[in-house]
Write a structure and sequence with these properties.
271 residues; mainly alpha; 0% strand; OLC1v1023259C1
Length: 271
């Protein structure tokens, strides 16, 4: 019963976040639809509000992770499609930067030729002077690229920590406990202690991943203009919410297909 209540808290936290994103998106789209390039104060407030809401969400996740971090890494309240694209319980921090590249029409390569790409992107006729993400300057692109490199490096370190923790499953003591057990999955105090230790370690990695997600967005927002921040925030929320809806629709389609399978088709699949 206690575990059930805990899972409800996890799911409620996520659903509250989804509802908040929908509400924030509505405000952003309304402000952007007015097409006021000089409304920097309003755009700045909307961006700051979005950051604050995400910060509050990560704080709640940090508290929940102390109780059951694995549930946040592969949340049962998300669709399989959403979970397939998760990186340590959320989106990759660099995704917001890739989204900027996509929206401004610049395809940047992280190599020695980046400067040429930056120069070409800033002078491209496709980038019109609109004040939004289509109007990113060459200097902004250089700063964003530097942030991209730094973020990818930080992601790599966290991925390495996760990989090391996953590999520890095959080490002592879990491997030896499983080998010596009379029954598969036999419970013991030793097992519970080791699993709890792994859960705590997972929680620490998750919290650090959330910190990287937050710090990356904050630094990115410091590079962009208020209007560009609002433009990016709206696009990011639409993508996240769309992924959820696409995942739900796909699962419904899969259920519908299963119901349509005839007995003969079922036999063919089972061969």
């Amino acid at each position: 019963m206690e575990n059930c209540k805990l899972q409800q808290k996890f799911e409620c936290c996520f659903q509250d976040w989804i509802n908040q994103q929908n509400q924030d998106l509505e405000e952003l789209l309304q402000a952007l639809s007015l097409n006021k390039d000089d409304d920097d104060e309003n755009f700045q407030q909307l961006a700051a509000k979005g950051i604050k809401h995400f910060e509050d969400y990560t704080d709640k996740r940090a508290l929940l992770a102390k109780h059951d971090a694995p549930s946040l890494l592969c949340p049962p309240w998300c669709t399989c499609f959403e979970n397939a694209f998760l990186w340590i319980g959320g989106c990759r921090p660099s995704l917001s930067i890739r989204l900027v590249y996509s929206l401004c029409g610049a395809e940047l390569n992280i190599d020695t030729g980046t400067a040429d790409h930056l120069s070409a992107a800033s002078s491209s006729p496709l980038i019109e002077s609109q004040g939004n993400l289509a109007d990113i300057s060459s200097n902004q692109l250089h700063l964003i690229n530097s942030l991209h490199l730094k973020t990818i490096k930080a992601e790599g370190k966290l991925s390495d920590r996760m990989a090391s923790l996953q590999e520890e499953i095959a080490d002592d003591p879990l491997a030896m406990i499983a080998k010596r057990a009379r029954q598969v999955g036999e419970s013991s105090q030793s097992v519970d202690e080791v699993l709890q230790g792994h859960s705590v370690a997972l929680g620490c990695i998750l919290v650090d991943a959330d910190k990287l997600r937050l710090s990356t967005v904050k630094e990115l927002f410091s590079i962009l203009t208020p209007l560009q921040n609002a433009d990016l925030l709206a696009a990011s929320k639409k993508l996240h919410l769309s992924m959820r809806e696409w995942g739900k629709r796909r699962e419904q389609q899969m259920r519908d297909q299963c119901e349509m399978i005839t007995g003969d088709q079922e036999e063919e699949i089972n061969k």
